[in-house]
Write a structure and sequence with these properties.
Beta-Lactamase; alpha+beta; 14 strands; 5-stranded mixed beta sheet; Heat Shock Protein 90; 5-stranded antiparallel beta sheet; 3 domains; Helix Hairpins
Length: 466
């Protein structure tokens, strides 16, 4: 799945969950809010009618006069034909009944419950107790749409409670307002959701377009094409990433150019050096003058040293070009590699009287790069080793430690000995190329390992952890 599709899906999921949560919360509150509004209106109307009924009270008792009865009946029969925000109201849906202080119905606008005892209904019972009385009752317990909300108000005469008037509003009369509110909420919510989705799609398209331009530029750079970096408006992360890719391209080009020049130079110099060495060896066999012999020996020696330097430069350039190990890792016998090194350095070991001690078993690594690392570590240890001392190679787990007996590394140089072309002088030795530990550091990086150089009590130890 592309980045833009993932962003759009993630954005849509968040927006959908948020929209569902908000709409669900609003829908769950819509019906109670409408009912609360209707209840508040009923409270006002009940108290108004209670005062009107109290006007006709005589001797502390409610009197339902013919005029009051006729007025309430005419009220129930009215057809207001009202247009309430687009909703037509063609009749009165409020049920009115009046009870005495004992809870018996004195008047019923529907004319069916007069004489009934309503003292146990919450609206009447609580009002007679001096509290706010209200109830909701279903005419059919199994049908929620038959519920009726009743709100009562006390009727008082000279401060004494002489009865209760209760107003009921059928749920069916409120339901159209609730349904209209829910429809509008759904319509507006869907519109907002659609608008946000379109806006999110445009945002994702804009981001994807910028990322695709940057991707095309990076692919062109990887293919070796000389292309101009994409121009982005605004200083954002993508613009900064494009600048970083451009800077990386230039650095890689400079590095690649340098590596190619080094490789070309070393290859071009190997043949002349071989010719110089060969000529020096022939001259050494043909002349008897001691001064000339020293001269020819110096020519041969320096040509050998330059040839070794070129080999190291080539090896270093090849290591730096590697992005991963050239072959699979396997268990490599370090003792066998140390034996090969001893064979190749036999004359130098004999000259210094230095021996090699290897302890431990094999190590899991890439064979060729591990061999190169071990040879460089032993060469470096031999160069600074005291005559007659022992070079120790200790293998444990995923690492190996090469140590010698000799002078310690100065504190100022400890952090720099792995830099390219940085070397320290050794007694009786020529200046080295300064590439040995740098190559070992590159090999450690290829193995996702570490290289640690430290002074010991009697010399120097280098630990390669793979």
């Amino acid at each position: 799945m592309k980045l833009g599709q993932r962003l759009l899906l993630f954005y849509f999921l968040i927006l959908g969950l948020l929209g569902w949560f908000v709409l669900d919360m609003v829908f769950s509150q819509a019906k109670p809010l409408v009912r609360q509004s209707a209840e508040e209106t009923l409270v006002d109307a009940a108290n108004l009618l209670a005062e009107m009924v109290a006007v006709d009270a005589q001797n502390g008792a409610i009197v339902i006069t013919p005029q009051l009865r006729e007025a309430l009946q005419r009220y129930a029969a009215r057809t207001p034909d009202a247009d309430i925000w687009g909703m037509k109201k063609g009749g009165i849906h409020t049920h009115v009944y009046i009870t005495g202080p004992d809870g018996r119905v004195l008047f019923d606008s529907k004319g069916r419950d007069e004489g009934q005892d309503f003292s146990q209904w919450n609206d009447v019972y609580l009002t007679l107790q001096g509290s706010y009385g209200a109830r909701t009752t279903r005419s059919d317990p199994a049908d929620p749409s038959t519920s009726v909300m009743y709100v009562a108000a006390p009727i008082r005469d000279a401060g004494s409670l002489i009865g209760v008037i209760s107003l009921g509003k059928a749920g069916r009369s409120i339901e159209p307002f609730i349904e209209r509110a829910e429809r509008r909420l759904m319509l507006y919510g869907s519109g907002v959701l659609l608008f946000c989705l379109v806006l999110g799609g445009l945002l994702v398209w804009w981001l994807s377009r910028r990322v695709n331009r940057l991707q095309g530029y990076a692919q062109a750079v990887a293919a070796g094409e000389r292309v101009s970096p994409p121009a982005f408006r605004g200083r954002d992360e993508i613009h900064a990433l494009a600048d970083a890719v451009t800077a990386m391209r230039r650095k890689l080009e400079d590095r690649s150019r340098l590596e190619d020049n080094v490789t070309l130079l070393t290859h071009e110099m190997k043949s002349p050096l071989a010719a110089i060495r060969g000529a020096g060896e022939i001259l050494a066999d043909e002349i008897d003058d001691p001064a000339l012999e020293r001269f020819t020996d110096n020519v041969v020696h320096e040509s050998l040293r330059l040839s070794d330097l070129l080999d190291r430069l080539l090896a270093m350039a090849q290591l730096e070009k590697l992005e991963s190990l050239p072959a699979q890792k396997q268990v490599v016998d370090v003792a066998s590699l140390a034996g090969q090194w001893q064979d190749s350095r036999y004359a130098l070991l004999q000259e210094k009287g230095v021996s090699v001690s290897v302890s431990g078993e094999g190590i899991h690594a890439e064979p060729d790069t591990l061999k190169l690392a071990l040879f460089n570590l032993l060469d470096n240890a031999l160069r600074f080793a005291e005559p007659g001392s022992v070079l120790r190679v200790e293998v444990s787990g995923k690492g190996m430690r090469v140590s010698n007996q000799g002078p310690p590394i100065p504190d100022y140089a400890l952090a720099r000995v792995t830099e390219r072309f940085y070397s320290l002088p050794a007694a009786g030795e020529e200046k080295s190329s300064g590439l040995g530990l740098a190559m070992v550091q590159e090999i450690a990086n290829l193995h996702d390992g570490t290289l640690k150089v430290e002074n010991t009590a009697d010399g120097v130890a280098v630990t390669l952890h793979l």
